[in-house]
Every structure is written in structure tokens, then in C-alpha cells.
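User: Let's play a game. I give you a shape written as C-alpha cells, and you guess the letters that built it. Ready? Here's round one.
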């Protein structure tokens, strides 16, 4: 379908090249110094404003987008893989582009007509490419009650996307980063249940696309999911227009649907009213081949927090029943954070039967991910 240079968005959302045994560099050799963002926005605590979140910049800023100088490219690539929408996610955080679309699209009269990406799941298309795979829920994928966990679901999404890519073949080398994922557990999958997966493109923007995955179990389990991926230039790390070959391949199943790429969560801030906190440690086993914590691990944070709020009776939600969970990926977690063995902080609260959470860095300066979970009932 199309070759993707594996992108690492842990500290640099557009970072695609890494050197063996040395500090990661960005596309074209862009160093990841400072907060490391390339063409991105980040959230930080502003001590001068009662600990509230503020946007921060670096390099040369244009609105919410940042640029950094490009130097000679690295010659020591760890991996170049083939996958659509970057399904072998390799621990990517989102490319944080701000709450607005690109400047070129801000004046479009059609913008108000477009939905935000990965905000709802659509039915299978009547025509166009739908890729299908079969697999079985295994012991390592389930919780103590035999339910397929959300982090395992996220890995299933990556795997079926990879299989789709391998089946189609490469269009050209490019990079993608995940920005937002929505999972609707209509009925939980169970241990040893056979699962049929179907995946297709459900929408596009000028520089991003949605991937839908429908999971149907032989015992009645049903999980629907959708992920928004941003297309990057593998050299500059900036959002790049979707290539003609991609559009030609996926327009039919998407029905020509256009989506935006906004992130909508307001991160929960430690110290705010009704906000609880607990520590969370990333593990060496969470690291992927690009030496960063894999994106699917964010769903382990969701699972951990769900169990905590249920134990404290803050939320009446049966994880084995129907639920809706969404994660927005921001700054990711690199190897240095893991080996420091210092806890990160999960900040969470329950309001109007919705669990909201954010994972903060040890110094409470950076948000790694945000999530919201509620019952579908």
C-alpha cells in the first residue's frame, strides 16, 4: 500500500530518524533538544498562573506551529517499515498541531461541514476496500475476569493495519503519527474468543486520515474503533498533503468524507478541585524498537485508572459491559524517562459519570496523554 518511515513522536512528534546508541534526532537530523517538538504544540504548567496549563513554544514559531533548522540526515537508521496509517505505531504520541486546522484550510467555507476525526464510528462501507483478518483472544490479552483489555485492543488495531499494508504493498515512503483513538466496547471480547476484524479508511483531511476497525467475536463480542493519523513529510517532519495514490486507493470506502484533526480534551491538572492523583511507572518492557514507550501502553494507563476509580467507588462502570473510551496522544515517553525509574503522575476526576484523566511527566511540566471514559449505556 505505502511504505512508512517509522516515526517517533515521543519528544519530537515528527521525528523519524534515530541513531544507534545515541540521542535521537529528527527528520533530516533535527536534534530533539529542548522539549523536542517539531512543528508542534505542547502543554506545560505555568507556575505564575496558579499551576494552570499554558502552551509553550520553541525554535521559530508561526501561530501554534514551530520550525527548527534542518541539518544533514542521519545514516544510521534503525528501521524502515511498511505499514498504513503507521500501524506499527512504535510508541508514537500525536503530532500536536493545535486546535485549528492548517492555515490553508482555516478560510475554507466547508470547514464547518467537516466532523472532527476519530470522534465517532461509521458502519462498513457499501463499496471500496475493506481488509479482513481473523485472530483469537489469548491469555495475555485479558484481565482477571477474562475480558479483552483496551491496551490489547489497541495492539489488535496496529496488527490488522500492518496486515492491510502488507497485503496491498507500498505506494511510496512516508511517515504517519497517531493523534487520537476512539474505542467503543459494545460487548466485551472474552478469553479464547475467535475474532473477525475488518478495517477501512473512513475519512480524510488534506494531511490526515481515519482508519476504522470493526471487531466481531464468535461469542457475540463487539468492539468498534477509529484512529486519526497525521501524514508527515519524512524529511521535515511537517504535516504533508496526502499523495494522489493514497487518495485514489481510499476515497471509495471513505465516501469522500472529510474530517478535521483537532484535539478536544482539556488535560486534567493535578491540584485542581476534585482531581485525584496516583503514581505510574513506565517499564522497560513498554519500550518498542525505537526506544520509546509504545502508544498502546497509554491504554494500560486507562485500565489502571478505571480499576482505581471503581475501587474508590467514584464511578459506577462495569468494564465488562459497554463503554466508550478515547485517548489523545501528546508528548510521548522516551527511554531516558523509563530508566530514570521516577514515577509519572496520573491526574483524574469523575464528573457527570465521565472519567477524565491525564498522564503528566515527573516534573509536572508535560502532558503525555489524555483520556475520557464513559458508559455507552
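Assistant: Ready! My guess for every position:
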Amino acid at each position: 500500500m505505502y511504505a512508512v518511515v517509522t516515526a517517533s513522536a515521543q519528544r519530537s512528534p515528527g521525528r523519524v530518524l534515530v541513531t544507534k546508541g545515541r540521542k535521537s534526532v529528527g527528520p533530516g537530523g533535527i536534534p530533539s533538544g529542548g522539549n523536542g517538538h517539531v512543528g508542534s504544540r505542547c502543554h506545560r504548567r505555568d507556575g505564575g498562573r496558579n499551576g494552570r496549563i499554558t502552551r509553550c513554544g520553541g525554535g521559530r514559531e508561526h501561530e501554534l506551529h514551530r520550525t527548527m533548522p534542518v541539518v544533514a540526515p542521519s545514516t544510521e537508521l534503525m528501521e524502515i517499515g511498511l505499514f498504513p496509517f503507521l500501524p506499527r505505531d512504535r510508541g508514537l504520541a500525536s503530532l500536536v498541531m493545535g486546535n485549528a486546522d492548517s492555515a490553508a484550510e482555516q478560510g475554507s467555507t466547508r470547514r464547518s461541514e467537516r466532523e472532527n476525526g476519530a470522534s465517532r464510528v461509521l458502519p462498513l462501507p457499501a463499496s471500496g476496500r475493506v481488509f479482513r483478518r481473523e485472530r483469537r483472544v489469548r491469555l495475555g490479552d485479558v484481565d482477571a475476569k477474562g475480558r479483552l483489555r483496551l491496551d490489547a485492543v489497541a495492539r489488535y488495531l496496529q496488527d490488522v493495519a500492518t496486515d492491510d499494508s502488507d497485503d496491498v504493498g507500498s505506494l511510496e515512503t512516508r511517515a504517519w503519527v497517531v493523534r487520537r483513538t476512539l474505542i467503543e466496547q459494545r460487548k466485551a471480547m472474552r478469553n479464547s474468543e475467535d475474532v473477525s476484524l475488518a478495517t477501512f479508511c473512513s475519512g480524510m483531511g488534506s494531511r490526515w486520515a481515519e482508519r476504522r476497525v470493526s471487531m466481531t467475536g464468535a461469542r457475540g463480542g463487539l468492539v468498534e474503533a477509529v484512529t486519526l493519523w497525521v501524514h508527515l513529510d519524512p524529511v521535515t517532519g511537517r504535516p504533508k498533503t496526502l499523495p494522489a495514490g493514497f487518495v485514489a486507493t481510499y476515497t471509495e470506502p471513505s465516501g469522500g468524507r472529510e474530517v478535521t484533526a483537532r484535539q478536544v480534551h482539556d488535560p486534567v491538572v493535578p491540584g485542581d478541585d476534585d482531581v485525584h492523583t496516583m503514581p505510574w511507572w513506565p517499564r522497560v518492557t513498554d519500550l518498542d524498537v525505537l526506544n520509546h514507550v509504545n502508544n498502546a501502553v497509554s491504554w494500560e494507563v486507562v485500565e489502571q485508572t478505571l480499576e482505581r476509580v471503581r475501587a474508590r467507588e467514584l464511578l459506577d462502570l462495569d468494564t465488562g459491559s459497554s463503554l466508550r473510551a478515547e485517548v489523545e496522544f501528546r508528548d510521548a515517553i522516551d527511554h531516558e524517562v523509563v530508566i530514570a525509574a521516577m514515577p509519572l503522575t496520573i491526574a483524574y476526576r469523575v464528573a457527570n459519570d465521565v472519567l477524565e484523566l491525564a498522564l503528566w511527566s515527573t516534573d509536572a511540566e508535560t502532558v503525555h496523554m489524555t483520556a475520557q471514559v464513559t458508559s455507552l449505556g
